[in-house]
């Protein structure tokens, strides 16, 4: 299989592999047993570099299966450890864009919630801070533009909880366009309008700050907000 024609590699050196995750591919093996991004990339590295035995590729952070955009993998255990520390200390800067099914949110804001996950249903919901299973979730957003009863939001995550963006906005009656899981009235059958557009990190070896960009698709409803996202 030609991974190069299927997955856009944004950057690669001896320590990092940064790619644009395609939509609807799990980032790692899940119950579906569908081919996952981590395995695809390992197989590609094995072929491209003619490596015998197993190939190391460390998973540092995740994107939900239906979400596309920038994701970084570590090619050494040292790089994985240093990147994981950046995630833990919030030195990792992740920017997303989303199309929300509302025009009623304030133009900018900070959302703080406690989230709890039902592993069996793979669903997350907002709880209160007294729930021992609740994990604090924080994001900041800016509304860039409003059109056709939709809002385009730029989102910066402070925490990286499962389904965080989708749940936090849905709990405020601002569900994401075509989110079949958290939008109570998804009129759309298209792809969920959530994209990991930017990732900034400190290179684990050179210590250089690096930013990687992935633009959302040009399809509707992203096409409405092309100018706003630039």
Question: Please, could you describe this protein's structure?
Answer:
The chain is α+β, with helices and mostly antiparallel strands. It has one domain: Pseudouridine synthase (2-Layer Sandwich), CATH 3.30.2350. 17% of the residues lie in helices and 34% in strands. It is built from five helices and eleven strands, in the order αββαββαβββββαββα. Strands 1, 2, 3, 4, 5, 6, 7, 8, 9, 10 and 11 form an eleven-stranded mixed beta sheet that branches. The radius of gyration is 18 Å and the shape is globular. The relative contact order is 0.17. The model has no long low-confidence stretch (mean pLDDT 93).
Essential attributes:
230 residues; globular; Pseudouridine synthase; alpha+beta; 11-stranded mixed sheet; 5 helices; 17% helix; single chain
Low-confidence stretches: none
Task: Indicate the structural class.
Answer: alpha+beta
Rg from Cα: 18 Å
Largest sheet: 11 strands, mixed
CATH architecture: 2-Layer Sandwich
Helix-strand sequence: HEEHEEHEEEEEHEEH
Mean pLDDT: 93
CATH fold label: Pseudouridine synthase
Instruction: Tell me the domain tally.
Output: 1
Terminal CA distance reads: 33 Å
- How much of the residues is beta strand, in percent? 25-35%
């Amino acid at each position: 299989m030609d991974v190069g024609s299927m997955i856009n590699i944004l950057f690669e050196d001896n320590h990092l592999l940064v790619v644009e995750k395609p939509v609807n591919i799990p980032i790692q093996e899940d119950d579906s047993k569908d081919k996952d991004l981590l395995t695809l990339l390992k197989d590609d590295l094995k072929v491209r570099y003619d490596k015998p035995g197993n190939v190391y590729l460390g998973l540092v952070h995740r994107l939900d299966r239906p979400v596309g955009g920038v994701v970084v993998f570590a090619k050494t255990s040292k790089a994985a450890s240093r990147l994981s520390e950046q995630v833990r200390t919030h030195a990792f800067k992740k920017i997303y864009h989303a199309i929300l099914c509302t025009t009623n949110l304030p133009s900018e804001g900070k959302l703080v919630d406690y989230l709890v996950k039902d592993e069996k249903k793979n669903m997350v919901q907002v709880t209160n801070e007294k729930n021992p299973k609740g994990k604090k979730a924080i994001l900041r957003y800016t509304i860039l533009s409003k059109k056709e009863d939709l809002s385009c939001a730029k989102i910066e995550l402070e925490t990286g909880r499962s389904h965080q963006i989708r749940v936090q906005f849905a709990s405020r009656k601002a569900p994401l366009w075509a989110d079949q899981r958290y939008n109570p009235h998804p009129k759309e059958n298209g792809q969920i309008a959530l994209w990991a557009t930017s990732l900034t990190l400190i290179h684990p070896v050179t210590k250089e700050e690096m930013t990687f960009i992935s633009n959302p698709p040009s399809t509707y409803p992203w096409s409405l907000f092309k100018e706003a996202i630039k």
